[in-house]
Write a structure and sequence with these properties.
Layout: E1 6-13, H1 17-28, E2 33-37, E3 51-53, H2 60-80, E4 90-93, H3 95-99, H4 101-105, E5 112-114, H5 117-123, E6 134-137, E7 141-143, H6 145-154, E8 161-162, E9 165-170, E10 176-180, E11 184-192, H7 198-203, E12 212-223, E13 233-236, E14 246-250, E15 256-261, H8 278-293, E16 297-311, E17 319-324, E18 327-332, H9 339-352
Parallel strand pairs: 1-2, 1-11, 2-8, 4-13, 11-18
Antiparallel strand pairs: 3-7, 4-6, 5-6, 9-10, 10-11, 12-15, 12-16, 13-14, 14-15, 17-18
Length: 368
């Protein structure tokens, strides 16, 4: 063990939003933390200038967790001194959105309502004429992703270790060894939330995670009217504009609008993107949707984003935490909005020595 270079109470593998949220919660509980990532904080699956915070989910348990997460986002905004979610709300179009209203209204802290045509035009002036079902969630908004990543990373007592972790190895009562490219360290506990790399690290300790890895692409589009006082998120499941599963959220200062179409692109046997044309084609589809549905945006794509997606078999919002002794492994998809709750839960799992029942794989949290 003479080669060991560093140690702390807990190692967190992955400096995306969940890893940083976990490190923040662990530090607040009084534990020392070392965060590892092969790239800068907020790369990988957390990349981009905005994300949607939404309350609506198929699984009512995720709705409850979203209420809790919204409270934590507000608390963290105050503690970290920066706005982390906009106050602009979120609009959802289509019959599915309308059918979720009663569930949302049954929860405290979710002011949601059906919109008339006039209200929709007033709240979402960038949208083309539309006369179908529309729902407004006042407490939803655009997550300020880069502000969140930056504030959480800056709160760390020690900087992120920029190195690629190859293995995590249980050492019994001696803790857990983390072996990276140029560093070996021992920690009391390890939390793995490393996006696409989670499956490989978990397999090394005997955990077989049922994760499917696919690819995705989205883009941002310039807002034509720079004087808008508010710009809500958009979820369009209506099909009126020739696409369904469309999502979008404004950048800070409402200068641009990040938008994508919820399509997962297949990978090949070695783990790369199966069709190299598919990422560009998905961005083109997003631009075509903008041209049809959102005349308040310039349809020329800005800053395309390409990333990996890790989904569990029970749903697109599925999430779970596995445990092997002092190692805790999280996997799932659409995690950004719930990140404060996931970070707090992982921190509590470490201090308690066990994963809460709700977050265990057999609970199939986030199932549709």
């Amino acid at each position: 063990m003479g080669e060991v270079h560093s140690t702390s109470d807990v190692a967190v593998i992955g400096a995306g939003i969940v890893g940083l949220s976990t490190a923040y919660a662990l530090q607040r509980s009084g534990l020392s933390v070392t965060v590892y990532d092969s790239g800068p904080p907020g790369g990988g699956q957390s990349v981009g200038a905005s994300r949607l915070f939404r309350h609506a989910h198929d699984d009512p348990r995720m709705v409850d967790l979203a209420v809790e997460a919204r409270t934590l986002w507000d608390r963290w905004s105050a503690d970290l001194g920066t706005e982390l979610i906009s106050a602009d709300g979120s609009i959802a179009l289509g019959e599915v959105a309308a059918g979720r209203v009663d569930t949302l209204r049954s929860r405290p802290g979710i002011p949601v309502r059906h919109l008339s045509g006039d209200e929709l035009r007033s709240l979402m002036p960038i949208l083309a004429p539309y006369d179908g079902p529309a729902v407004f969630d006042e407490r939803a908004g655009a997550i300020r992703t880069q502000a969140a990543i930056g504030a959480l990373a800056n709160s760390l007592a020690t900087p992120v270790v920029t190195d690629h972790v190859l293995t995590v190895r249980p050492l019994g009562d001696a803790g857990v060894e983390v072996r990276a490219g140029s560093n070996v360290s021992v920690h009391g506990d390890v939390v793995v939330c490393a996006g696409r790399g989670t499956v490989q690290l978990a397999a090394g300790i005997g955990l077989s995670l049922p994760v499917t890895v696919t690819a995705h692409a989205r883009a941002s589009f310039r807002v034509r009217d720079g004087s808008l006082a508010a710009l809500p998120n958009l979820q369009d499941g209506s099909g009126v504009f020739e696409e369904a599963g469309v999502y979008g959220a404004a950048h800070p200062y409402r200068s641009a609008f990040g938008l994508g179409i919820a399509r997962e692109l297949e990978t090949n046997e070695p783990g790369g993107v199966a069709d190299p044309n598919s990422l560009a084609e998905l961005v083109d589809r997003a631009a075509a949707y903008v041209a049809r549905a959102l005349p308040g945006l310039d349809p020329e794509p800005l800053r395309p984003i390409s990333c990996w997606i890790t989904t569990l078999p029970w749903g697109d919002d599925g999430v779970a935490i596995w445990q092997a002794d002092h190692i805790f492994v999280l996997a799932g998809h659409n995690l950004f909005k719930h990140a404060p709750v996931l970070g707090e839960t992982l921190a509590q799992s470490v201090t308690a020595g066990s994963v809460p029942e709700l977050f265990r794989p057999e609970s199939m949290l986030g199932g549709g």
